[in-house]
Write a structure and sequence with these properties.
Length: 278
């Protein structure tokens, strides 16, 4: 157990060491921020459940742990897209920031998406964008959220979702970083309720709900960081208001798939995991 949790504890410790508090004076100098949210290439979703935890061996029977993790990964992909994850973090954070300068003068997210069109296309690996393109919109500062790793893991028969990444703010003139907040959310380490991987295999929306909960928690942390209490000489709000930013709803449900023929006893349908315990 100790060896399995060490990498996640190391990430948490590293996160604390790399933080940089946003000073009120630095925020006072911001005139026109732009928000970017992205997921690094290869960040996930990943399943570290069946290969890393022998508690499921009897349940898997003839199904190899490597194949079981592959099947679970497919289910996680079906639960929520990379774009939905990154967008949830951006929109939730921005919607909870106070209606005060400079948050009332954020560059229109639609314009940011337009200039970064090739970067934001979901099928393209989400490497760092060309920030100078955003500067052409009048932005002087970038607030960027990056997800580096996410998925499910398990320890001693208890599974859960995890999420790791960071937020940062930097000026476009000189790329001076004025705020950084790494995060590492881990439902297993936090002792949250068991997220049964076999139930997720039958109902992937359970993983979506877990991810939504963690993303909203990260957003609350970001909002607190981005509203320092030591502000002083912030310029007065201008007459124009920032573009509205609406939290997107879930994607429309697709038509139900035709009912699959029940496989013979003790055999699994292609791509499926065993049924959860009653």
């Amino acid at each position: 157990m100790t060896q399995r949790i060490l990498p996640f504890l190391a990430l948490l410790l590293a996160s604390g060491c790399a933080s940089q508090r946003l000073a009120g004076a630095d925020l006072d100098r911001v005139q026109r921020p732009a928000f970017i949210s992205r997921i690094e290439d290869g960040a996930g979703p990943k399943s570290h459940v069946f290969r890393d935890d022998s508690a499921y061996r009897n349940k898997l029977k003839k199904l190899e742990p490597v194949e079981a993790d592959r099947r679970l990964t497919v289910k996680l992909l079906q639960a929520v897209t990379r774009f939905e994850i990154s967008e949830r973090l951006r929109v939730t954070t921005l919607s909870q920031l106070p209606r005060e300068f400079p948050w009332t003068h954020v560059v229109d997210p639609a314009r940011v998406a337009s200039v970064l069109e090739s970067f934001l296309v979901e099928e393209v690996p989400a490497n760092a964008p060309d920030y100078d393109l955003v500067a052409s919109l009048g932005a002087d500062t970038i607030v960027e959220f990056v997800i580096q790793d996410y998925g499910m893991r398990s320890e001693d028969g208890r599974a859960g979702a995890y999420l790791r990444g960071y937020g940062r703010m930097f000026t476009l003139d000189g790329r001076t970083e004025v705020w950084r907040r790494p995060f590492a959310m881990d439902q297993v380490a936090e002792g949250k309720e068991h997220l049964d991987p076999f139930k997720v295999g039958k109902d992937p929306s359970l993983f979506r709900a877990a991810m939504t909960s963690m993303l909203d928690e990260v957003a609350r942390m970001f909002v607190k960081d981005l509203t320092p209490t030591d502000r002083g000489g912030a310029p007065p709000p201008r007459a124009s208001a920032a573009a509205s930013d609406v939290v997107p709803g879930k994607a429309g449900a697709s038509a139900p798939a035709p009912e699959a023929t029940k496989p013979p006893e003790d055999e699994l349908a292609p791509g499926e995991l065993p049924d959860p315990d009653p």
